[in-house]
Automatic annotation (TrEMBL):
Transmembrane segments: none
Record family assignment: Belongs to the GST superfamily. Phi family.
SUPFAM superfamilies membership: GST C-terminal domain-like, Thioredoxin-like
Entry GO MF terms: glutathione binding; glutathione transferase activity
Descriptive protein name: glutathione transferase
InterPro entries: Glutathione-S-Trfase_C-like, Glutathione-S-Trfase_C_sf, Glutathione_S-Trfase, GST_C, GST_Phi_C, Thioredoxin-like_sf
Catalytic activity: RX + glutathione = an S-substituted glutathione + a halide anion + H(+)
Biological processes per GO annotation: glutathione metabolic process; response to toxic substance
Keyword terms: Transferase
Record-level GO cellular component terms: cytoplasm
Length: 235
């Protein structure tokens, strides 16, 4: 049975202010206000899940307050988060760091690396996290063959990243963007909970990039928010 919502799902607080709802296959359900910037965005999802963490990180980078409403997405992985962070980075372009690129060329590079993460990185990161972290904490057996194959594939992808990061500080250039942000939640679980820090440790530039992007104040706030069971964030 499909869940009632398709997290991560964002909406303004229910204050009766006129809102509109845009529903697309990519975005899931996305609510935002018309003319009321004081409304608190609601993020529907599980705090420990990768996709809601992407959305929360984008909001924290932009200094946008939000409320996390717990929705258990069980075993389903939702890809709407990438479209949602694009939307948020555009909507709040005048706040915080530029996460989309400043020129058409820069934006194209960001889009390219967002696609790389979704198509070439995440398909291997997800089975690693699922088999080596999610299933064990549920007391369920992991598929070791799937996990091992995914580790080998992800390692090859990271070798490509190593070459790119030997040329630029971040994936899409010399500024932190969504291209980097979308990698953080899943990679954190791989490094910290799956015992696979070696995937980064033997790649000088990837390791430096990882230490840089996870050292950002906004990401540290997200980690603290998740670990302390937060429900409301305010800059």
């Amino acid at each position: 049975m499909m869940p009632r919502f398709h997290p991560p799902y964002i909406s303004p607080s229910d204050t009766g202010t006129t809102c509109f709802k845009e529903t697309t296959r990519r975005l899931g359900y996305l609510w935002h206000s018309l003319g009321n910037e004081k409304m608190v965005v609601k993020v529907y999802g599980k705090a420990q899940a990768v996709c809601p963490q992407r959305v929360m990180h984008c909001l924290v980078e932009k200094g946008v307050p939000f409320e996390l409403v717990h929705v258990d997405i069980d075993n389903m992985e939702h890809k709407q988060s990438r479209a949602i962070v694009r939307y948020l980075a555009e909507k709040y372009a005048d706040r915080g760091p530029n996460l989309l690129g400043r020129t058409p060329e820069e934006r194209a590079k960001v889009d390219q690396w967002l696609d790389v993460e979704a198509i070439n990185y995440n398909p291997w990161a997800f089975p690693i996290v699922f088999n080596l972290f999610v299933l064990p904490i549920r007391g369920l057996p992991a598929n070791e063959d799937d996990a091992s194959a995914a580790v080998d594939k992800l390692n090859k992808v990271l070798e490509v990243y190593e070459k790119q990061l030997s040329k630029t500080k971040y994936l899409a250039g010399d500024e932190f963007t969504l291209a980097d942000l979308t990698h953080i939640p899943a990679t954190r679980y791989i490094v910290e909970n799956c015992g696979l820090s070696r995937l980064l440790d033997d790649k000088k530039h990837v390791k430096a990039w990882w230490e840089d992007i996870t050292g950002r104040p906004a990401w540290k706030k997200v980690v603290s928010f998740v670990e302390t069971g937060g429900s409301n964030y305010s800059p």
